[in-house]
## 1
Amino acid sequence: MNAPRLEVDLDKITQNARLLVEELGENGITVTGVTKSCMGSVEVAKAMLRAGVNGLGDARIENIEAMRQQRIAAPIMLIRSPMLSQVERVVRHADISFNTELAVVRRLSAAAQLAERTHGVVLMVELGDLREGILPGDLVNAAREVLRLPNLVLTGIGTNLACHSGVAPDAANMADLSALADELEETLEVKLELVSGGNSANLDWALGAGRKGRVNHLRLGEAILLGRESLHRQPVDGLYTDAIALVAEVIESKIKPSLPWGTLGETAFGEGVTSMDRGDMARVILAIGEQDLDPDGLQPPEGLSILGASSDHLILNSGTHRLQVGGEVRFGVNYSALMRAMTSPFVHKAMVRGIKNKPGAVHSLYNRR
């Protein structure tokens, strides 16, 4: 197979999504499967839909368009506030968009009129994370404006936490969101379809015994794809954490000193070098680098450690493992490494089917050619 590559086990993604859909469904919460980290991959989208997610979500209209071109007919929401320059594309291809600015909402209305379509609007509320959102005190007036505009439907309200500032979703802020939903419905005499509580960081709260309130919807990407909640990056019971792996090829394997020599300056990425003398070591170079992924987001197999990376090289200490040129090393990935690798044209995307291990099981991370 081509290297470097991301190996994406579609059956494990389906299993992860199915378990989350079932368990959250018992608490009255529906799931939108988020495809943004996979560039709107139609294979990943279909894997999520097979599991029963109620629709798909993406932050890029380009990804949504790509899924529509591949005949994905399921409901799709744009989960980033639309750009004014893209409102025509948004109403043409997305059923719902998340919004915080009335200037954008008005343009969506005009674009929807021209396209003879109805577009759903979810108003995002700022509850402390300081990424995006309407301040709670301004929400009623914003909702009133949406209701006034033609060809728009006020689908619901939502919030996003644990992203920019790391504010945890908890009983208090979810209760605040529920109270805002109640206030809107009472004041404006409307019924909200969605009260969207957040993302994979919400799972501790959503699956906990004390969960209550109006929240009936989550947008899940990391939990489905990587089997982890995104607040503390802990595995979720019963989910596969190895549905996606990064595989890279060895292009050099030598015994070298542990200390550089010569006059030292900055590295290729402007960093200083601090080293300690550990004698000669087995050093391995893999054909992948900063241009392709976030090296800090790689989880190397046991016995290997990452020494650093340049644009095109990932350098490992292979310890007692003498890896051969042409061999392969398989890494776990976090969300950051996954997103960067997915966007790299130099990383092949290999979609595979067939679960060969149970959740939490360890499998071989070394391949020989």
Note: The chain is about 25% helix and 25% strand.
## 2
Amino acid sequence: MIAFVRGEVAALTLTSAVLEVGGVGLELMCTPGTLATLRVGSTATLPTSMVVREDSLTVFGFLDDDEKQVFELVQTASGVGPKVAQAMVAVLSPDDLRAAVAGEDVKTLTRVPGIGQKGAQRIILELKDRIGAPTGARLAGAPATPAAPWRDQVHQGLVGLGWSAKEAEKAVETVAPDAGPTPDVPSLLRAALRALSKA
């Protein structure tokens, strides 16, 4: 198992980061919030989770160990695969997810693309005794990103999570007034997802 990866960020795509580790470029699938903290040419250390399938080997990269543990835990619920698990940690912080499961908050869980009413109820039923209480570990607000790229990152994140380009554009416009001088991409992405779930 690959527990973490440390290396120079060689490339960033809409959904992944390539880290150079010992002369090898390792592609990590990441949420928009994680990608927003990375810069090409800088060194990064990301906790990772490897998903092995018959036809593929995928490594997922995370902001911190808490996010990784939640990603792995939610996959133990029936019907939750790596893609839905990644969407869950993209839309909700680990603590938001814990609070939603503990409080049996179906509405919050159904904001995640790919999770319907029944799926949310099943996740609550299966994880309630195991997910734990919110830890308050992560402080609100991830590292700030330059003003111009945030629109792209939020738009690409929404499209990556299954929304159409038109819906994503509309949601970006909706959250634009909240961006401020130092946009917090993960928060803006969550706000955009909230706007889309209400639409």
Note: The mean pLDDT is 86.
## 3
Amino acid sequence: MIREFRPGDEAAVYDICLRTGASGEDATHLITDPELLGHVYAGAYMKLCPGFASVVEEEGDVLGYILGAPDTRAFEARCEAEWWPPLRERYPDPGKPATTDERLMYAIHHFHPAPDEIVASHPSHLHIDLLPSTQGKGYGRRLMDRLREQLRRAGSPGIHLGVSPENRRAVGFYRALGFTVLAENEHVVWMGETL
């Protein structure tokens, strides 16, 4: 079933983030600190935008999630004020990152905002991850439909996301849902949809 995020789901969301963190594949073997991916890509949404977070639950286990922010610029500002400072105290800036852990620590200190040209027309954004055992059951589409409706009710005209060009399966999934490529470079494909 799909349900709204509840306090207590954080550990499961962090675990899913790690187990899908290598372009959709398990990143457990790539990272020493298992919380880092969750800190960078999931935690702030659960703390700052819990009303736009939903999870997939089967037999009491959380197996997937969608996390959204209705106003990307407001979310980025709140992260800068509330989310990143304690993490920056906990994790030193590695300077020139060499490992996956160091790249994530670098991201904590040098967060890159979404491009202005994308946010102007697609001000909301999302992250979605499903464990392999949950994929192919329609949960991804249902999670997306649920978040789209929440964002429409909040008055958003459009939604975007960034995906690794290496994650071809995800790019295909978003295209099948009606997302189009807004911009891309060697690191990220920005995709969006008008709501």
Note: The chain has one domain: 2-156.
## 4
Amino acid sequence: MDIATWLLDSDPSLRWQVMRDLLDRPEPEVARERARVALEGHGAQLLALQDARGYWNNDEYGEDQDRRSVFWSLALLRRLGADPADPGVRTAVERVHESVIWKYWDNLPFFHGEEEPCINGGVLSQGAYFGKTGEGSERITARLLAEQLPDGGWNCEAPDKSKVSSFDTTLCVLEGLLEHERAVGEVPAALAEARTRGEEYLLKRSGFKRLSTGEVANGRYLNFSFPPYWFYDVLRALDYFRDAGGTFDARLEPAIESLASRRGADGRWAAGVTWPGDVYLDVDAPESEPSRWNTLRALRVLRWSGVETQSQDVG
């Protein structure tokens, strides 16, 4: 089948990334398509659900696996690639910046984060992406530096309770540090080193294996679901390393092989098990059906890695 045509027959949030990452379309063409994210489709629907005080569902994070909150709405807008310069997006972010607080954590402003490194990694990435760096991001990065464990990663368990890092938390933090570095430019050496150490935690484990035995650390790491929320998986991790740039690290070859092995005979990847929780929008296909988001992300990862697979070309 013509995978490119199938991918482009979708929401503008996915189309612009296909055009940029797989088809090498000219930048002005990509920018025009990206501008549609805030005006139609999933991005526009999500923006319209924010109330005048800056909240989604009157909640900053969401209890009992409720994804209808400020945190998860901004996280999804970032993954959809909503343009921070769009007037509607700017208005939504300003509302959050001016009014949303962490009611259960010292009433701090939203972009100052709270206490868990997995959540703070997400807030850091959102603040950086949407142009809200400053005092809040300084607070978060200082905490993350202090909370990094000796093995190089992070864990949402309190440091005095956990001596071993979590794949999930480590990737959430790495995404935040990368977005922050991209937004502010040069960062202090300690912060750059922290991201490198976090990456090494994952690279030493081939992205999904136990360091002690070489076995798959957790079966759910092979479940590819979009959006991923706080859950770790191999595709999400590989897409992080692709986004970070640089040359492909051979230690990730087992992860690439695992990703390629899950490609269907028609050249597409299926949707994984959807993570639990109440959501505003179903942005991907139902479980086991062909997933545009997984196929896009997998193809751009394979393209970055240089791995040749059958029918990889979508151009």
Note: Strands lie at 101-102, 108-109.
